[in-house]
Amino acid sequence: MFLITRKNPLKRTAKLKHNLNTVRCFSERLTSPEVDINFNNGRSLKISTGQYARLADGCAVATLGDTSVMVTAVSKTKASPSNFLPLVVDYRQKSAAAGRIPTNFFRRELGPSEREILTSRLIDRSLRPLFPEHFNYDTQVVCNMLAVDSVNNPDVISINAASAALALSDIPWNGPVGAVRLGFIDNEVIINPTRKELQSSSLNLVLSATKRNLVVMLEGNANSIFQQDLQKAIKLGTKETQHVISGIEALQKAFGKQKRELVPVTEASEEVNEAVRSLCEMRVRKIFTDYTHDKLSRDNALSDVRTDVVEKMKANFPDLDPNLLNETYNKIVKQIFRDLIFEEEKRCDGRLYDELRNIECKVNLYKPLHGSAMFQRGQTQVFCTVTLDSHESAMRMDPMAMLISGVKEKNFFLHYEFPPFATKETGRIGPIGRREIGHGALAEKGLTPSIPDDFPFTIRLTSEVLESNGSSSMASVCGGTLALMDAGVPITAPAAGVAIGLVTRYDQERKNIEDYRLLTDLLGIEDYMGDMDFKIAGTKKGITALQADIKIPGLPLKIVMEAIQKATDAKHKIFQIMHECIDKPRTIKKDNWPVSEKLEVEPHKRSKLIGMGGMNLKKLFAETGVQVSPLDDNTFEIFAPNQSAMDEAQEFINKLLTAERVPELEFGGIYSANIVEIRDIGVMVTLYPGMPPALLHNSQLDQRKVAHPSALDLQVGQEIQVKYFGRDPVSGLMRLSRKVLQAPPK
């Protein structure tokens, strides 16, 4: 249900009939229209426009609970010379929106965090498929958080606000889209769950869809959710997005701008098209049906054909624009590639639609590493390593990430690297890029449910792509599982991943798919020339992570369900191959594995262990590399890089705690105490050699009231008699008294 109103409904301006509800519009100067969208679970999303950022092409504010996000869309009116869509999505988390001050040195927002980059990619994939073909105008979508309530996550709200901003603007766009977050608790699908609900949910899935229940984007993680439960959630989520779409459409109809006319794209004449096709079609077909080609030889062969075609076309058409010629050639090659998949019932490498590439696995590659693995699938190769360290090495989250996600630190994280040599290219190796962050986060989601909660170490898993010909992130899931088992991490279940591709025959006029083929274990060229890259990871039990990168304006649910089924079938085949390499976590310890133990220390001995200013612990770390960290008042955790270091550390600690034999003191016993220091509040005494000085307070020095020890002529080195009353149960300090040994004053 939704309702568009103004704050002071003085005059009715329009009455619109909609397939879901009746929309009422009221107008008043300087107030903003608003649409209320009610989901089936009773939660409400509000979208408004016209109040902020009026100079932008489009602006919308979306609110769920007390979380509000403003999104603006601006596009240049002059086309860019590029032949791709120059769309940039910038999502920024503002500390002020949460009532916080940034904790960095400058106390202001700096560069985008990892979470901001991942959310920007999430929004981008929801919007990009719906831009018109050949739209090459620089477009920027900026998402600003106005308020955050730490209950509702802003990312889904931002997708809906961005959809509304583009729909209301004059930017050509075939939207709107609607987005929802899906949880799964007690066999029930939850729409837009709160942060607290997500902690007990086995699913965290963001779904974007457009009209007619067409899925545009999927991304999420799960705790090995069953396939049928995931499919149930996707169906319900797609249905719920239709409420959002209907509300935005009503808002657009009432207050949206008229879409600007696009300048027609210059295309090659029919004569040029036929000339290029006649010069290259047979040769390109021969390349794509020569199944002996690999990635490099196929690319080189196509490049040779391109060079020959360009030279011959220049001779016949000297005035032809080289860029237009290259674009025409690329278009023809892509069409031939797609047609052959339907005609030959095979792919360019000779595989059937459901066939996997050859897989090779190796573990325990280098002795100094805690765990290592190499996973090769066709010409995609990843090298994974596992490093185990103490809890002190856990990744601390920034304050905004903690507020939104509820996670304070991570003891398992995956870092993904994609150097340029992996695709036989040169380039700068520097700070990690957005693509690497996105692929690493997806692989991490696929493996996280397998990591035990009570594992005593922090785990850093690295995945370096050494060769790439498609689906390196899913290869990282497979290689990461092998490396974790090689490192002896007691994972609950192995995980594997695979990418499913799609090639369609799409009717541009009717906006529907006439025919399609799903491709298991996607090649790089199939991703580039195809319509979908659907990555799915999971265990034998169920699915742990998924991400759909869709290039056409939406997929029917039938295709989405088929893709999930094909990924599940392929996953079981991959497990069989992985289990031949290593079938369970290693139980025989490696010499270089770290060791962790807990140490109980009596309260009065803590100072001996720690030393002045932590001197003893610092010395222990410098000499042995062993870290000692307090867990609570009496318990310490000892982390050693290996067993020999642990043995050395235990010897060092035992020496500290038992340096001198401590005599057993009898409760109520009388002992001779040696004064070692005189203070204003009392005297410091020792009862035996090597004992840490204990305080004998002024109140316990004499039967008379004593303001200072000097009143009794006490001196350093003097011996006095004291009575021992045990130790304080909280502080562990000795309780001593001298006055109880004296007669009461007369």
UniProtKB/TrEMBL annotation:
Pfam families per the UniProt record, alphabetical: KH_1, PNPase, RNase_PH, RNase_PH_C
InterPro entries hit by this protein: ExoRNase_PH_dom1, ExoRNase_PH_dom2, ExoRNase_PH_dom2_sf, KH_dom, KH_dom_type_1, KH_dom_type_1_sf, NA-bd_OB-fold, PNPase
Enzyme Commission code: 2.7.7.8
GO CC annotations on file: cytosol; mitochondrion
S1 motif domain location: 668-739
GO molecular-function term, one example from the UniProt record: 3'-5'-RNA exonuclease activity
Family: Belongs to the polyribonucleotide nucleotidyltransferase family.
Protein's name in the database: polyribonucleotide nucleotidyltransferase
Organism: Zophobas morio
Source lineage: Eukaryota, Metazoa, Ecdysozoa, Arthropoda, Hexapoda
